[in-house]
Structure formats: structure tokens, C-alpha cells
Amino acid sequence: MKIKNNFIVRNFFVFHPTKNEEECKICRNSFKGSYTTTMKRHLLQYHEAAYLSEMEKNKVTEPAEKKRKFEITISRSEMKEVYKQIITNVPAEILESAPFKTLSEQIFAGLEMKPEDVLNVQES
Fold first, then answer.
1. How far apart are CA 56 and CA 58, in angstroms?
2. Distances in Å between the alpha carbon of 29 and those of 67, 91, 113?
């Protein structure tokens, strides 16, 4: 059976209900409230090896990051102009990098354009 991440985080702390505080079992640092996000942040910052070891021992993996959708408002002609400036001013190794391509693909898809449409603008 898989153990949840929050259970492991809470195992590193002792809750004192009279004070409404969580106390770290490793360094005795205390935090108001009982928030797993605060506890996890503390573990990653100060006791990362112990936390990751416990996660590994219990075969717990971090959940995948949620993807967020966001909107930008830009016309096709404005986008072509922006990309024209980027293509002429940014080194080729950046334009060919995986992060730049990932971002560009999303923008082109949102505008229902192909990268070639912009490249053709640069040549003219």
C-alpha cells in the first residue's frame, strides 16, 4: 500500500494542541498551526536528506505538477512582429533550445499558426 506524502511530512513533527504549534523532531523548531506545506518547506530547506530518505524508503513520489492555462491577448500581426525581432536579435542556440521551442509551440498553437509562418516573415 502506498503511503501519502502528508503522512511522511507529519511524522517529522509533534503537534502541541495547547499551543497550536508543530515542533520539528529533528531541530525542535516550532511553527504556529498545523500546515503540511510549511512543514514540508522546513524539511526541504533544513533536513532534505532525511525527508528524501523517508520518501524513498516508503516509495512515495511527488505528485506531478499541475498545468495551468493562461491567456494572452495579441494579434497575429503583433506576434509576427515580436518573433521577427526575437529571431533577428537572439542567438540561434537559444532559438533552437528545448525550453524556447516548448514555449513557442504553445504560443503558435494558441494563435493557430506554424513556426514557418514567422520564419517566412523574417526572410521578406
1. 5
2. 34, 48, 54
List, for residues 58-110, the tens digit of each pLDDT value.
877 666 667 777 777 888 788 878 888 888 888 888 888 888 888 888 877 87
pTM of the prediction? 0.48
β-sheet bridge partners, residue 16:
21
Report the 3 state secondary structure along the chain.
CCCCHHHHHHHCEEEECCCCEEEECCCCCEEECCCHHHHHHHHHHHCHHHHHHHHHHCCCCCCCCCCCCCCCCCCHHHHHHHHHHHHHHCCHHHHCCHHHHHHHHHHHHHHCCCHHHHHHHHHC
**Pair 55, 89: CB distance under 8 Å:** no
**CA separation for the pair 124, 119 (Å, rounded):** 9
